[in-house]
Amino acid sequence: PVFPSPSYHGYDVTDYRTINSDYGTMEDFQSFLDAAHERGIAVLIDLVINHTSTQHPWFQAALAGPQSLQRDWYLWSENNPGYRGPWGQPVWHQRGNIYYYGIFWSGMPDLNYETAAVKTEMFETATYWLDTVGVDGFRLDAVLYIIEEGDQLQNTDSTFAFWHDYNTHVKAVKPDALSVGEAWTGSNTILQYVVE
């Protein structure tokens, strides 16, 4: 990912609308994008919308408690529900006297797409990169895990429905945009993610 992040890998995003300073500035990125387009090269960026960094301002605001406008942007539990992730990892992480959900690790809390404002914000983020900046599409991280249904953490009906909505939105913004999802799973499951 090209976004600011506290880690070497960049998958714990702290700001979805700018470039990690290690890579330069937005102006540098725009110059790169313009040069690529002049040469007939399409540019996709890695869009990480399943989770943020714990250092993202949304999560920091959510930590203020139930009164926070961003509290429902993440998943919380007063106790540890006890189930583990697909490869046996802990998915509920303690912060003070409450637990938050993060399928990959404690530094990357999952966003709660049952909250309409989260979906709106991330769709607007896609619009920003496609329309304002001018990228040609996205490599979508962790597509299997967008919406959990109880202890079913991947490949849920809600996740498939989300990606149909996402595709409809992106194609309305830029009909020739390309999205490629990261789906480490069997072919029969992958086919359910193919949206035309």
Describe the protein's architecture and organization:
With 196 residues, this protein is an alpha/beta fold. It is 31% helix and 11% strand. It contains 5 helices and 6 strands; from the N terminus they run αβαβββαβαβα. It has helices at residues 26-38, 57-62, 116-133, 157-173, 187-192; strands at residues 44-47, 76-77, 92-95, 98-101, 137-140, 178-181. A 3-stranded parallel β-sheet has the order 1-5-6, with helices on one face. The chain has a 3-stranded antiparallel β-sheet with strand order 2-4-3, with no helix packed on it. Strand 3 (92-95) and strand 4 form a beta hairpin. Helix 3 runs parallel beside helix 4 (157-173). The longest helix is centred in the middle third of the chain and has 18 residues, at 116-133. The protein is globular. It starts with 25 loop residues before the first helix and ends with a helix. The mean pLDDT is 95.
Brief characterization of the structure:
This protein has 196 residues and is α/β, with parallel strands linked by helices. The chain has helices at residues 26-38, 57-62, 116-133, 157-173, 187-192; strands spanning 44-47, 76-77, 92-95, 98-101, 137-140, 178-181.
